[in-house]
Every structure is written in C-alpha cells, then in structure tokens.
Write a structure and sequence with these properties.
- It is built from nine helices and eight strands.
- The termini are close together.
- It has helices spanning about 20-35, 40-50, 55-60, 70-85, 95-100, 115-125, 145-155, 170-180, 195; strands spanning about 10, 20, 90, 105-115, 130-135, 165, 180-185, 200-205.
- α1 (about 20-35) crosses α4 (about 70-85).
- The chain has two domains: about 10-20 and about 90-210, HAD superfamily/HAD-like (Rossmann fold), CATH 3.40.50.1000; about 20-85.
- The radius of gyration is 17 Å and the shape is globular.
- It is an alpha/beta fold.
C-alpha cells in the first residue's frame, strides 16, 4: 500500500504503539478472581476483547449487580497506572514515528484511554513531539472514541481522502469508517487476526511493514 497520498496519520495508542496486552490481561484475571470467575487465556482475550469494554466484561460473565462496572473500572485503572511504565513501545514504533515525521506527515493520537493519563505516558516515553494533537477520553470507561475523532477532523480541517487511522481493533476500523477515512489494522495488539479479518481493510503483522 502506498501511503504517500496520506498527509495525516491518526494513531491508536494501546496495543498499536504501546505493547500493553500482557498487563491488561493480568489485571483482568485479577478482577476475575475477585469476582470468582475463571481466568482467561491470552487467546481468549484476543478473541473476546471488544468495545465498549463494558460488553467485554459482560461476555466474560461479570454480574454488575454483584460488582459494578464502575468498581471494575476503578480497580483496573488503579492497577494499570501502578504498572504501566513496565510496558514497552512496540518494536519499530519510534522508527516509524520518525519516518513519518521526516516525510512531513502530521501525526495524531486518538485513544479510548483517559486523556490526562494518556498525555502523561506519552511524555514518559518521550515521543510527545511527534504528535500535533493527543486526544483521549474524559473518563476511565474506555467507551467509543468516535466523538473525539469527529472533533479532531473538524478542528484541524483534516480531509478524509488525505487521512488514515492506524489501530489494532475493530473499533479503530469502525471509527475510521464513520469518519469516511481509510484504516490499517495491526496484528498482536488487543484482538486476534481472525477478528480483524471481519473488517474489510489492510491488516499488517507489525509496524515495520509501514516502512516498506
């Protein structure tokens, strides 16, 4: 695929630029134990994870009358914030960001992660200067990021034909489709290749393929 015609790159964060699935899975299994539910394997996580995240927990068997989604989110974010700096950027992430920067492409982040913490962790990895805009949600519930995507497109007057989303979930594809822009999905993020294949778009194995 030729990326030359795309002047604007909108990145997802978790699972796309940051390799954090292992941490998310460990926290979810900790919450499962608290709720007396069986732990899930990495493959089960890849098959079941979805947006909005509330539905994902329902599919795992959580009864919100026994443990509310608000309480689950509270536990999850507390554990995640304590350990998030143990995660690494995905291989080639920094190289790809530098490549697009040198190619004069404008880069953005559109994430379902809480905005304040999103800005903090991007600063921690010292990659803030690559992005013209960083956009996260105003809560910890990992709901849809479409509303922020619409704001971003309007605020920066991004032309759909010159803009692309790069993510790792079907939600990234759904957001891109709603914004009428193209998307590329990357494997080994938060959903399986088989799940991503339901989306009629390009799927790549790793970020390195973007350089070819």
């Amino acid at each position: 695929m030729n990326l030359d015609k795309y002047n604007n790159i909108i990145w997802d964060w978790n699972g796309t630029l940051l390799d954090d699935r292992w941490l998310c899975l460990s926290i979810i299994n900790k919450i499962c134990k608290k709720a007396n539910l069986a732990p899930i394997s990495d493959n089960e996580y890849l098959e079941k994870f979805n947006f909005p995240v509330m539905q994902f927990y329902q599919e795992l068997g959580f009864n919100f009358n026994k443990i509310s989604f608000k309480e689950i989110a509270k536990i999850y974010i507390r554990e995640y914030e304590q350990k998030k700096n143990n995660c690494l950027l995905r291989k080639q992430a920094r190289i790809v960001l530098q490549y697009f920067q040198k190619s004069k492409k404008k880069q953005y982040i559109l994430s379902a992660y809480s905005h304040k913490e999103l800005v903090e962790i991007i600063n921690y990895y010292k990659i803030t200067t690559f992005f013209k805009k960083i956009s996260g949600l105003d809560n910890h519930y990992a709901d849809s990021k479409l509303k922020n995507g619409i704001k971003m497109m309007n605020l920066y007057q991004l032309k759909p034909e010159e803009t692309i989303i790069i993510g790792d979930t079907t939600h990234d594809f759904e957001v891109a489709s709603s914004l009428k822009i193209y998307s590329i999905l990357i494997e080994n993020g938060h959903q399986s290749k088989e799940k991503l294949e339901h989306c009629k778009t390009l799927i790549i194995k790793d970020l390195n393929e973007l350089l070819k």
